[in-house]
Amino acid sequence: ELRRRLDVDEANARRAPCRAHPSGHTHPGAGRQAGGGLEAPAGPDNATEPAQPEPAEGGDTDELEAAGVIAASMADDAEPEHPVEPERLTPQGNRRSPVTESEQIDYKLPPAGSIERSAKKAASAGSTEGAMGPPLIEALSHFGVDAKIVGTVTGPHVTRYELRLAPGVKMSKVSNLKDDIAYALAAEEVRILAPIPGHQKVGVEVPNDVRQVVRLGDVLQKPPKDYSPLTVWLGKDIGGQAIGTDLAKQPHILVAGTTGSGKSACVNAMLASILLRATPNEVRMVLVDPKQVELGLYEHIPHLLTPVVTSPRLAANVLQNLIKEMEERYSLMSKARTRNLIELNRVRVKDGERPLPYILCVIDELADLMMVAPGEVEDAVIRLAQKSRAVGIHLLLATQRPSADIITGMIKANVPARIAFAVSSQTDSRVILDQNGAESLLGKGDMLFRPATEGRAKRIQGALIEEEEIERLIEHWKQQGEPELQEELLEAVESEEEQAPDDDFDPDDDDLLGEAISTVVQMGTASTSMLQRRLRVGYTRAGRLIDMMERRGVISGYEGSKARQVLVTEGDLPRILADLSAAPAAAE
Fold it and tell me: Which end of the chain is flanked by fewer CB atoms within 10 Å, N or C?
């Protein structure tokens, strides 16, 4: 009877939760699931002490008490499982996900069923050709263009009629009839390809009466042999073929289009493509969302390096810190005598070190950043675009203002891959693609994609992913850990001229202080951004000048969103400037 009760007590001891950690967290032990979550420990009422045996009727009480002592001793002497340090646990009890230098964790990729497929089929080519073919030929003949249809290609959203022109007919004559053809066919928009690249044909693209919805699940394909974790899927072309691209080979991409054209859906499809195939060990992300409504869904995925950035000022800081990360990676590559991230990671793995992940920086609205800090943002984007490809840092820039002051010549020169959605004019199309065509797009995901390696753009119906599908993906990753953020990436970076030249540097003295005081008195207001624009200095130095003027009583203190008040008048200005000039002389 004693042996039987010892066996029962030993089983109870195994089911009891582990002893409390001195930090207050319970020892995770067997209660932790493989994915990083916590499950409730077994046993009645989640007791923390081993269950004592109940006296059996007619049994020896002394023997049973001894059995309880032995069972408790066995539970205390049981070898504990490997503990998790308290600082590796979030307040919710989840294990934190790694940053670049952290340990590697075996993540589980989302199941294939996370993304839905479309139930509708594409329209048949025959029905579309029968409806639009004769009116097209008739319209051309009215304007003296002798042509015949030699082929038809039907895609999910448009049908392309391939025309063979009679000898002596200029292609430009067909291009000039674009509006007349649209009128004759009662079409919303018509796009002319004169000629179709690689063929002796002229293409006339006419919208389908019924457009097929292309979902992300319809275009996801098995990764190619040279697969990179940054491979994304964009949609289907006119022939119904799935189109994707590897952001690591582009190496940066610009997405532009007017409101409602499908730009944000395209960005979500690209992010979802990465989340479906890449773990935080392979790809880390920096998401910049000045509009505060597009990328907030991704706030808790373990792929993040920083919180979702909504402030243009912090976004400029992030870009400057990514430049520092780029330079550090180049230093590692120089020491390892490698030329790109793949070669560097091979050397690091061979030496027993952890590989470095790709870093994808997504800026959802470039126009907002360019308006607040145009110099800093443009310089940082250009530096990253010029040099960061080899070290695995890549940019995805999106904007709904495709104007020349936002997409500058230097940005275009260093961001070769472009995606254009519907725009209002040929000028905007040329700003994005350096060619016409985007002004004839239909909206709702209709795009032109120009890869870095090709001169002509491909027409694609963009893949759609619903918000519910994105939430399922995010929930899958959230269950495996919360992001361990590197919030130091949000801190300002001083430029070389702003750094202290020697140990005698006085942080409360600046040769621009007099000019800054004159500026705020003349303007009647004081702000860091205003000093940046007027004095052409960085954010750190402008902020220091604001602090110095506050200590001298020139402006009021910080009061949240309320603007600082200028406390002196223009009549006080000569005295204040004279005092500033006298201070260095007195010090000497």
Answer: C
Is the confidence at residue 47, as pLDDT, over 50? no
pLDDT of 344 strictly over 70: yes
The set of residues, in sequence order, having a beta carbon less than 8 Å from that of 571 and lying 6+ positions away, is none
- Per residue in 386-415, pLDDT (tens digit) is 999 999 999 999 998 888 888 888 888 899
Which 3 state secondary structure label does DSSP give 524? coil
Strand partners, 399: 256
- Cα 378 to Cα 367: distance, rounded to the nearest angstrom: 11
Instruction: Find where tokens 């795009």 sit.
Output: 447
CA neighbor of 207 nearest in space, from 411, 393, 441, 389: 441
Q: What is the largest CA-CA distance in the chain?
A: 116
Type of residue numbered 275: L
Residue found under tokens 């792929």: 303
Q: What stretch of H or E contains 395?
A: strand 393-399
Instruction: Output the 3-class SS for 451-490.
Output: CCCCCCCEEEEECECCHHHHHHHHHHHHCCCECCCCHHHH
User: In terms of CATH architecture, what is 501-587?
Assistant: Orthogonal Bundle (1.10)
In this structure, are residues 482 and 256 in contact, taking their beta carbons and an 8 Å threshold?
Answer: no
Instruction: Quote the tokens at residue 486.
Output: 């590197």
CATH class for the region spanning 216-490: alpha beta
Residues 162 and 152: beta-carbon distance below 8 Å: yes
Phi-psi region of 58 (alpha: psi -120 to 50; beta: other; left: phi over 0): left
Residues 6+ apart with CB under 8 A from 28: 18, 38, 81, 83, 84
Domain spans, the chain? 2-95, 125-207, 216-490, 501-587
pLDDT (mean) for 332-342 = 91
Give the pTM: 0.67
Q: In terms of CATH architecture, what is 125-207?
A: 2-Layer Sandwich (3.30)
- CB neighbour list of residue 296: distance below 8 Å, 6 or more residues apart: 289, 308
Nearest of 136, 237, 242, 177 to residue 150 by alpha carbon: 136
Beta strand pairing call for 242-246 and 231-237:
antiparallel
d(CA 96, CA 172): 62
CA 284 from centre of chain: 9
3-state SS class at 291: coil
Contacts of 581 (CB under 8 A, 6+ apart): 514
Sequence-distant (6+) residues with CB within 8 A of 76 are: none
Question: How far apart are the C-alpha atoms of 239 and 478, rounded to whole Å?
Answer: 38
d(CA 474, CA 94): 15
